[in-house]
Write a structure and sequence with these properties.
The protein is of the alpha/beta class. The chain is built from six helices and six strands; from the N terminus they run αββαββββαααα. The protein has helices at residues 3-21, 73-87, 130-134, 139-144, 155-169, 172-188, and strands spanning 46-50, 59-66, 92-99, 110-112, 117-119, 121-124. The strands form two sheets. It has a four-stranded mixed sheet, with helices on one face.
Length: 191
């Protein structure tokens, strides 16, 4: 039998299939269009292949930066995971959303399907103490501190501390790049 005939048979017998083969209690059934779009334009914010020092196989780390509470974000992340798995078969994938919006984070980080639970890591930058990033060895980490919670200073004092560190530990084009990144992130936080 060809695929079209099997699809037609399933459409006619769908309720019986669910009731008798999967033993699901059925009150009513509605046929849903099965034609799904094949072309999906999806660009991840960042995908890194990371090899740890413990000899394990490399892991793809997918990172998304998010400023707004989007209810469809978990589905979007799941689609991106599927596309990454399709492009990199057998590769382990780890996903993280970094939220730095002004509103309290209300993003769900999982989708419960009947046979599986999909989830990704969610980091709400407003819950992270900025001191850890501000004192990290890499100047780039200090730039990220502007997205965090300032516990012992005002946001303006935090920006001043970051700028002072960048001037002390970087120079030339590298410093210019870091200052531009700081300015961009501070503007997103309206600082």
């Amino acid at each position: 039998a060809n695929d079209r005939a099997i699809r037609a048979l399933l459409a006619d017998l769908g309720a019986s299939f669910l009731r008798h083969l999967l033993h699901l209690p059925i009150a009513s059934v509605k046929l849903i269009e099965t034609q799904l779009p094949k072309v999906i334009e999806r660009r991840a914010d960042l995908v890194l292949e990371v090899t740890s020092g413990d000899g394990d196989a490399p892991i793809l780390h997918h990172i998304e930066a998010q400023r707004q509470n989007e209810t469809n974000l978990p589905a979007r992340m799941m689609v991106t995971a599927g596309l990454l798995l399709d492009r990199h078969p057998g590769q382990r994938i780890d996903q993280t959303v970094i939220y730095f919006g002004e509103e309290p984070c209300r993003i769900a980080c999982e989708i419960a399907l009947a046979q599986c639970l999909y989830r990704f890591r969610l980091i709400d930058m407003s819950t992270i103490d900025c001191r850890g990033l501000l004192t990290a060895p890499e100047p780039e980490a200090a730039v990220l501190a502007v997205l965090c919670r300032a516990t012992d200073c005002t946001p303006e004092e935090l920006v001043q501390a970051i700028v002072a560190r960048l001037f002390a530990e970087s120079s030339g084009a590298y410093r210019t790049k870091l200052l531009f990144q700081l300015e961009t992130l501070a503007a997103n936080r309206r600082l």
